[in-house]
Queue: 3 jobs
Job 1
Amino acid sequence: MPKVLAVSDKLPIRTDSPVHKGKVRAVYWLTAEDSARLITERGYDVSPTARLAVMVISDRISAYECIWRGAGGLNGVPGKGAALNAISTHWFKLFKEKGLASSHILEVPHPLVWIVQRARPVLIEAIARQYITGSMWRAYTKGERNFCGIDLPDGLQKDSKLDKLLVTPSTKGILKGIPGVPEQDDVNVSQKDISEHFAAFHFQAATDIGVYERLLTEGFDVIAAELEKLDQIFVDTKFEFGYVKGKDGRDHLIYMDEVGTPDSSRIWDGPAFRDSKQVVENSKECFRKLLQAHFSDPDILVNKDRMVERTALAVDNELPAEMLLEVSRVYVGLAEKITGAPIVVPEDPEAEIIAVLRDTFNLID
């Protein structure tokens, strides 16, 4: 069975802060001393007082707010972490080359590791949609004709292309005290909500709202154009943004987290959709559909009122290993198409990460 990095938050990386553990990534905040040392030794183009972090991506796979595992001890998707990092790094580099904005990535010492600059996140999941599908389509079928403050016409068809790219943000985390915005994670909001309460979303100025929308739409267009060359359709995506302090002492709005990956985007196969209107997913949607087909009561997966049952489903069930290997083929295959290079799947990821962070970066005691 292929090796995966299932746990990414137990590495002996030197830090003086609690390790932040997300669904698939762990962030180790470096000490002020190690940050300053690496900025000097590695020549990073950041403020000399910037705080750095080591971000380690695992091969775990989450869907419907749960972590899933396979039979035979396959606690992740082989190559998934390396594929996601390679895709994001590729797009971040292209954004910078085209003059959009920088990202938080400073160096890539291993396929599963980024050295990053600490950013202060904007509390928005910046979502852009070119087609009506997913949650937007589900809302539309229930009669909703206003989505994130945008009026939608009658007569739209499932999976059809929208007249223009729509920006449909949602909250990142639970925001309190904003009239009309429920105090829940991942709640749809309008541009009006953001403009009237920009500080609550951690924008430093109201004018930065226009900057984030421009970086979102221009970034979307860059990826869509590149995917079109590969005969792939960029359907919708989620970006995240944050502020970092530059060498000039000013705060800059940058891209962060990940962009244009199968985890954060829907990507459809062009020939299948063009020739037969068949949706062939080259993204995490393929895994969601496999889950829905695997369980006898797929309503558990999508019904928010059945979260307790869903959590038990994920904890108590091992998925067929072939299901996770199929996802691996999708992720790795897409990454190799996008980057034009083979994706190296680490043979012993934990040992490799410890070795490079010890020998090259002196971050292991």
Note: The longest helix spans residues 207-229.
Job 2
Amino acid sequence: MKVIALHGRRQMAEIFSQRLSKLTKQLLSQFNASTVFVDAPFALPLEVDQDVPTRSWFEGEEWTPAIATVCQHIAQHTNQQEPLVLVAFSQGCVVATLVCVLASMARSQLLTGTGLSADTLAILASLEPRIRLVVCAGGPSDHFPTRLHTVCNMTATAGLKLSRPLDIPSLHYIGKKDPVVSAASSAALAALFADPTVIHHDQGHVFPTTKHMLQPLHAILSKVTQPSTTTDGTSPGTGSVAAFEANEDQQLELDGLAAVFESDFELLKTSPPTVSVQLDEEDKEPRSARLVVTLSQDYPDVSPLIEVVGLATSLDVHIKYQPPLASQARIALQQSIDDNLGSPMIY
């Protein structure tokens, strides 16, 4: 499973990743789900004391770059069968909802004259069965570009509505003290989904990450991501590993890694064995690059699942060059795996 995280207006992927670090660690350890944080396509003017511009998903009525950006990241960082969870804050909730609406329409071949490329339309058409859950915090219903009302068969005369509510599980956090997005606006966004779960909290315009607030998210994820199993106990499709505990040789390698990397090493799961190794130098702030490895039962004779998380952020790579970097990293990792099959390879 892959989590696609969409920040709010006047944020960026790096800031959002820091604020959701607790949640992303839990998702990885409990659901073996890594998170891809996506930067919005439009840079905003620098404000006082800012060195790096924050970003926005929309620029006036221009909305197609937002959808193209999300689809590009999904295509680059996931395989075609991998289940998806969209996690969004504020303006990002509009984009997450819009992706769901357009995915449904693209699958039914109802999208015409949108300005979206053929590649983006093809990606959208593949998403509807893959999106297992949408999580929104502080999401407004009144920030959809008006040009989209016609494209998406929306009516806005008596509150924003779809001709057919989205049949996708959704969870919506609504702040009772939110000074930016009213509770009524967030409730109207939730109403675009057929069967939303709505959680009210006593905070303001935030994505709540307390244990009490995250429990409903974990409960819903446990239901919607339950995989069917094959006769050998593994989950269908690529990117899945059957539950098992490390054998003696595998445990020796993990113990050696823990001794070498010390605080930079973290055991995320024991079944299947999943570890994380920090890649940044100690004086690098924030330390965002991590190597995440899930052992296969017959490792090292069978390839492990390996992913580098946060590399583009660590190297301060411009968003334009992030997809090629991710592709090059995957090719290099696969080559290293192929060259070292049969031997301990994580170090």
Note: Residues 15 and 208 are 15 Å apart (CA to CA).
Job 3
Amino acid sequence: EDEDEDEDESGGPMSLQHYARLDTMVTVVDSSTIFSVLQSIEALTDSTMGGASEQDDRTVCNLMIDQIEFANVILLNKSDLLGGKDSAKMKKVLGVVRKLNPKAKVYQTTKSEVELKSILDTKLFDMEEASTSAGWIQELLKPEHTPETEEYGVSSFIFRSTRPFHPTRLKKIVNGFGELDKKIAEQSGKGNSEQRSPFSGVIRSKGQIWLANAKDFPMDFHSAGKQLAIEPTGSPFLQALGPENWDEDEKKGVEELKAKGRWDETFGDRGSEIVCIGIDLDKKLLVQKLNDACLTDEELKAGPEAWKKYEDAFFGGGVVNYFEFAGFEEEDGDDGDDDDHQGHHH
């Protein structure tokens, strides 16, 4: 009987969740080094932290941001090394962390001293809520035209466009992310804005973009600190997928887009949406740079056949695989009906 009690319904061994609940997700941040970590490009596999698998290609910066975004409680430790809770440096750290995760409870600490009731038996953890706690998600959930608030120089903006990006022009501008040292040098009079990218103050970005030479597939756009990645999502735009392949959720999604005026008669749901979070951002300049990287009226009129010939600036020739959605591959014995197309949701 004892053995039966240690097995779940499938006959496998009982896991920890059968004996305990996940109560609180706590992240401890070293306030004195947070900006150094945000600029780090050190891979987890090369760090002294240990525990990373060879397949984990994240940087130390990626890991820190992931942990901040997922936490219920964040301890900003070593505040004393930055001059105390009321110092300008500490307020900047607080502003960054609150922007990365506006839902978390944040405590400034020395030697990680905090009341136990703040981290034990809080019943704060909820998986559904945790999956949407990241600041970039919260920004997208806000109604459009919500006034931006700036705290201690930390702010964000959302770039949206229904025009595709010209791949070569986009490649030229998306550099210099998270170069906070250059930003700080400029503020102290030791540098100038001409020596740095307008993206130097961006510490986190996330979204999807439409590249002209990847007509039918959105690309995932995300950065953490200095590391930027643009990667295929694997799922086509809904308009490319075709109404005959939409499931009920996708049909509702199309209706919502149409209600918000974000469905184009020609290109459907194709477009770009990027959230950028950073320090002392020149948002007007950043939006201008991104708009300039989109197709002009003349390029737009030239149409997809002309776009297809654009240089592949990001994927070494592989972008051709994302120009046109060719439909679903039918398995042997498929009767032709495609009622289930899992993996094609956004």
Note: The beta strands are 26-30, 73-77, 105-108, 154-161, 202-209, 219-224, 227-232, 272-279.
